[in-house]
Design goal:
Layout lengths: L4 H22 L5 H12 L1 H13 L5 H11 L12 H19 L3 H11 L9
Helix pairs in contact: 1-2, 1-5, 2-3, 3-5, 4-5
């Protein structure tokens, strides 16, 4: 499936946030303000960039996944939110594109593995 990486990131952003929100609710956080504050650690560009960096440093991504991440990260766009630098934003976009790619390829199990790693469950086999 050869989709535009920004389209993958657009979709992946919503899927990623859904997984994080579900996880936080499962942790027993019920107040919306507390949920929003807890989610920021995971859904901010800075947080997403650090999780992608960790996945890369641990060599946890497969070849096709790396291709999507690098295509998204290296996309020639120069626009980014005012509250983050362009490099952080591109890394975050890489993670979002990866999640979107896996979702469109019906690979929920792989999304779960990656999300478990991001949530800190390092005992989960990532592949």
């Amino acid at each position: 499936m050869d989709k535009n990486v920004l389209t993958l990131a657009y979709l992946g952003d919503s899927i990623y946030e859904l997984y994080i929100r579900k996880y936080l609710i499962e942790q027993g956080i019920v107040k919306v303000d507390a949920l929003q504050k807890a989610a920021t650690k995971y859904v901010s560009a800075k947080g997403q960039a650090s999780y992608l960096t960790s996945l890369l440093e641990h060599n946890l991504l497969k070849e096709d996944e790396l291709e999507i991440v690098f295509r998204a990260r290296n996309h020639k766009g120069t626009r980014h939110p005012k509250n983050t630098d362009i490099i952080t934003y591109k890394y975050a976009t890489g993670l979002e594109a990866l999640i979107g790619y896996l979702y469109l390829n019906h690979n929920k199990a792989r999304i779960e593995e990656i999300m478990n790693f991001i949530r800190g469950d390092y005992n989960v086999r990532i592949w």
